Structures are given as C-alpha cells and as structure tokens.
Amino acid sequence: MMPLPRKLAASPARAVVLLLGLGAAAGCDPYPTLKDVPVDCTVEDGYEFLILSTFDNVGDNVFWGSGDNTIGKVVGDDENGQVFVQSIPDGSRCGSNAAAVLRAAHNNDWGCLFGSNNLGGPRDAHEYEGMSFWARAPGNTTKSFVLLLNDPNTAVFTGVESNCIDMGADATNAAGNITITVDGQSVSTSGSVTRPTFPNECGNGYSAVMLVTSEWAFYTIPFSRFQQDPKPNRVPNDMLTKVGTAPGTALLTDQLLTLILRMPKEAIAELWIDNLGFYRKKAM
Fold first, then answer.
1. What is the 8-class DSSP label of residue 91?
2. Which domain holds residue 275?
3. Do 190 and 118 sit in the same domain of this protein?
4. Which residue has the higher pLDDT, 212 or 171?
5. CA 45 to chain centre
6. Does any domain span residue 21?
C-alpha cells in the first residue's frame, strides 16, 4: 500500500475516509471494527420455566397464520398460512439449532396474525410470572408486534366452560336494513352500524406490545403487561366478575386458552421465535 501524502496524513478524518475507500477497493471489509454482538446464554440462569415449545424438530407445524384480503399477500410458509420449524442458517443459538419463523408481507388492510399450536389450552400458568421467549427480526424487517392472550372471559374454547357469550359476526356490526329518522319521518336504508360490545360478550383479549431487535435476545413479559381495551366487556364488570390472581391484570392465568401474535398492517415480517413458555424467578 502506498504511503499517504503528508498533507492527508495530517488530517485524521481524511485518513479514515481514504483507508476505508482503499479497503473496499481491495475487497476488504470496510468496517472491520463492527462485530456481531455475542448472545448472552446465561440470561436464563436466574429463571425457572414452563416451556410450551423448544421448536427443536425441523418441519413441525407450530403456528397458523391469517391475513387480510390484499392481493399478493404473504402469511406463513404455505398457501394455508401454516408455519413450520426451520433450521437456524447462521449458527446455533445457545445450543439451539432450530426455531419457528413467522413471515408475512403485503397485508395492507388490517394486517395479519399468527396463532400458536403449542399453548394446548386450557393452560395453567398461575404459578409463573409471565411469558418468555428468545426472538430476533433480522435485517430491514418489522420489529414490533402485539401479543394476545385469551381466557374464558374473552374467548370460547372447545371443552372449556366459557364465561362470555360468542356473538359471532354480530360482534362488530349489525348489518341489513337500518331505520333512521329524517325530519320526523322514518326512512329505511341498507348498510351497517357499529355498536358497542355487550358486557358479557367474548372478545377484547389481553394484549402486550412487543419490540424486538435484529439479534437474538431473551424476552420476559410479565402478566401485568397484558391489558384489555376499555370496552364494556372489560373485566371485571357486572357480568364477568371472575378475575385471576396475577397482580396488575384480570387475566385468568390458570386458564389460558390461546396465544396470538398480531403484526401491524403493511409489515414486512421475519420474526424468529425460540423456547416459548412461561417464566418465574428462581428462589433465592
């Protein structure tokens, strides 16, 4: 390599720019000081877990996906929106060689969601503090999503006695002919009206907003972060009186029914999930 001219060598900023340019021209890494952040595998040491899935078996069907009606949308790994365990291509994570990958794109209306096949409700997790998992969203992909948990106050589940009533398609709209009053005259028109939910109506699951990074990291989400929207069927109310024991939330953590991950509209998602379960701190 030719020596730098004296004038350039006297300017540190110019010297750095020139060195980076020469390195790139020679096929070298122009940013040799940027290293992958090592994964701290010891972060789990202070916890005990009730694991739902380690996602170790490549090919296992572990999530189902559903999206809006955007033409050309992508949800999951096949045309049915199913999600399968895949090998981690760039090396193992703390000894784990596989994970679930939630992929989605071009859901430009309300977005898309993924439901877990591993919760196996009703699941009793009342002796644990919250949910935990490893996750990453590499590259220029969406880093945020919403976790949703449902219990007998918010959902109907096969074989479980529900506290709420499933209103089906009527949960959002009352469609058909609508009678309105104009200048004292009753006029019928077609369309739909939005109505408030009933106090004992299913829906309004418990949600927590998540934000992950491009690299593998371990996440703990206390049950207290799972909250409902302020609607008439928010628990507790006169019709839905049963609440759970986890502090800060009415969620029935001893009867968890479904786990859903909802992506925002227009998301370009590639979310890797591993070791999904519930956590509690180890006793001192």
1. -
2. 39-165+201-281
3. no
4. 212
5. 24
6. no
Verify that 252 and 123 share a domain, yes or no.
yes
One domain, residues 112 and 243:
yes
Q: Which of 35-39, 142-146, 249-253 has the weakest average pLDDT? A: 35-39
| pLDDT for res 196 | 85
Q: Which two three-digit tokens encode residue 31?
A: 């940013």
* Mean of all residue pLDDT scores within the chain: 85
Count the alpha carbons within 13 Å of 266 in the hemisphere toward its beta carbon.
Answer: 0
pTM, full prediction: 0.79
Tokens of 175: 């469609």
The DSSP symbol for 16 reads H
Same domain, 120 and 190: no
pLDDT at 29 over 50: no
Helix (H, G, I), strand (E, B) or coil at 189: strand
Q: Find the mean pLDDT for residues 153-168.
A: 92
**6 CB-contact burial (10 Å; exposed 0-12 / middle 13-18 / buried 19+):** exposed
The pLDDT, as a whole number, for residue 241 is 97
Sign of CA dihedral 19, 20, 25, 28: positive
**Residues 148 and 275 reside in one and the same domain:** yes
Residue 106 near residue 263 (C-beta atoms within 8 A): no
Whether residue 160 is found in the same domain as residue 192? no
